[in-house]
Amino acid sequence: MLVFQTDNFRNGVIISPELATNIHSFYTAPAYMLICISSGYFVQDGGDIILTRHARGSWEFLIHHVLVLWCFLYSLYSHLYVAGAVVALFVEVNSVTLHLRLMLKLASQQSSPLYQINKFLNLFTYIVFRLSAQFYLTYYIVQNYSWMDKGGYFLVTMTLMNTMILIYFYRLLRADFFPRSRAHMEQNGTHNNVKKFLTE
Questions:
Q1: According to a count of CB atoms within 10 Å of the terminal CB, is the N or C end of the chain lower?
Q2: Structural contact between residues 69 and 43, judged by C-beta atoms closer than 8 angstroms
Q3: Rounded Cα gap, residues 34 and 37, in angstroms
Q4: What is the four-CA torsion angle of 82, 43, 67, 140, rounded to 10 degrees?
Q5: At how many degrees (to 10) do helices 190-198 and 59-78 cross?
């Protein structure tokens, strides 16, 4: 799923560069299809969290999925902001290194060369794709707020999501580059929170 999303929005932006600039009204059929498939993923993942009774421990993911789904479903219904949704999916590039990090941690490979290389790649993709995409969309909304459809909702949504990813970024830096003792991390819940985030 991650590979499919990554390949499709990368190809979409290369073929139609206006996707990255005309966020409000630019539309292509492949971009629309990508948002359809991605919405289905968020519905499935949210349903899996609820049905497997992990909602209490993963409430932040449910909030994230609800916020994303509202934006995506509005785009699908109105055919507006399809380009913005594609830009938002650039964060999935970072999900590749985040998931690799999780798998290496589950395999107790934190001291391996692969983990050390991946943690720097993960930091790079987090900044370049996750943070940059979020802040670019926020900047676009602020700059064009006066005439945007549902501008207030999108601004509030982006503010909440920006807060979440900055918190996750802090946790990531603390875990990989400024580690504390495992006992202390588990005592204050940091270790578990980081692991939950990486299963997104």
A1: N
A2: yes
A3: 5
A4: -20
A5: 30
43-74 pLDDT, tens digit per residue, is 998 888 888 877 777 788 888 889 999 999 99
21 burial type by CB count under 10 A (0-12 exposed, 13-18 middle, 19+ buried) = exposed
Token pair for 34: 């990508």
- Which amino acid appears at position 3 of this protein? V
Tell me how far apart the alpha carbons of residues 91 and 126 are, in angstroms, rounded to a whole number.
Answer: 8
Query: Residue 194 above 50 pLDDT?
Result: no
User: Contact, 149 vs 78, CB < 8 A?
Assistant: yes
Q: Give the model confidence (pLDDT) of 10-23 as tens digits.
A: 545 555 677 777 88
| pTM for this predicted structure | 0.77
Lookup result for tokens 């594609």: 86
**Alpha-carbon torsion 155, 15, 77, 60, what sign?**
negative
Phi, psi torsion values for 117, nearest 5 degrees: -70, -45
Q: What angle separates helix 132-143 from helix 151-176, to the nearest 10 degrees?
A: 160
